[in-house]
């Protein structure tokens, strides 16, 4: 078989490990591989690059993706499906491995329904994809954010300041939850649970009164009770501008400083969370997902995604993977609240 491989959506530590595993095991099966450039834009335009053993040698620990990525959606482009069909025919593509998050796998599901054989691999640092316990990239993002929290705490203590650290998580607070627990945050705020500004200030004051510097971890999508994200705020975050960040909304350092009397500062970690070398855990998980994906292709099992269930990697329908966003359950947030204040 001649198999295409693409990576879509935001870049993520571990993408190259998936590509490597697919090619290494698939070559052993006797398959040939074609890399599509820049997500779904590659199949639509026919932009490819060679993808053999030489190309994947040494990429296991490399961040980003050697294939490039984009947020192109062929179903939002006129004639997108027909373009993909045409280029697949011209290139002799028999099947496709699509590595990506909710949007990328949503396209993979529709392509499968339209008769194009696709196997998916879940990728998102937000860990918000259904049908899998964890996605690769999440562990790396949490590790980076936790290290940042550790470093920031020392400078906060030195200057007796309250620090508010914003991490990624527009609709799901998994990164904030795990970073807050691992970093010993005094308050953690997530999109799933609206917060009371006065209560947050109260928790911070409790910490200050004990002679310590309060540290708040907040997901970018967290909002106060009764709050609603403004159109301007949403647009700002869509283009990754920081005008809508924690520094300029309720629960901000300015707001907390006024309520607690403690000098406060904000730090927005931003894209540093998704860049760089994947952790050992993410390298292993990515590799296992890649092996499962090529096994599915080799067996002729399409319309599925590799998923982690407990410690096992299994195949689940793409429809299940994209059915709903996986958000933080209240009981998990209650665990973190034990350590607030």
Automatic annotation (TrEMBL):
Keywords assigned: Cytoplasm, Glycolysis, Kinase, Magnesium, Metal-binding, Transferase
Domain Phosphofructokinase: 2-297
Bias type Polar residues, positions: 251-262
Subcellular location: Cytoplasm
Residues annotated to bind Mg(2+): 102
Site (Important for catalytic activity): 123
Alphabetical list of NCBIfam families matching this protein: PFK_mixed, PRK03202.1
Summary of the function given for this chain in its UniProt record: Catalyzes the phosphorylation of D-fructose 6-phosphate, the first committing step of glycolysis. Uses inorganic phosphate (PPi) as phosphoryl donor instead of ATP like common ATP-dependent phosphofructokinases (ATP-PFKs), which renders the reaction reversible, and can thus function both in glycolysis and gluconeogenesis. Consistently, PPi-PFK can replace the enzymes of both the forward (ATP-PFK) and reverse (fructose-bisphosphatase (FBPase)) reactions.
Quaternary data: Homodimer or homotetramer.
UniProt name for this protein: Pyrophosphate--fructose 6-phosphate 1-phosphotransferase
Species of the source: Angustibacter aerolatus
